[in-house]
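Review form for a predicted model. The reviewer records the input and the model, then writes brief findings.
Reviewer: anonymous (R2)
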Amino acid sequence: MGQLWELVQAYLDRHGTSERQLAKRLGYASSGVFGNWRDPRQLPSAQALARFAALSGTPYQRVLDAVLTDAGYLPEPHVTDDAIQLRRTPSGRRTRGQQLADDAAAGEESQDPGDS
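Model under review:
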């Protein structure tokens, strides 16, 4: 399932509505339009994406990024362990990710004890 369809499914689940009802709200006669939203072989129109963004309260850029990623125009986001660790540990100590971010911001290289 693509990112665009995940946004659509979240809207359907949150509002307890059907694909057909959503299609009507977006100005389509049938929910068949969503076949292309699930697996975009052809990009949906900018107007359709803008209508969905406004209806769902999702920023247009997020909707556009989702469809462009699904169609292969944008790379899948790559989440690293360091990006996930950018918060304090339960002990209150700084995580490795925070230390790396601090070092990068200060222009310093982090020293790994195993490098000595």
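Findings: Residues 81-110 form one domain.
Further findings: DSSP finds seven helices and no strands in the chain.
Recommendation: see findings above.
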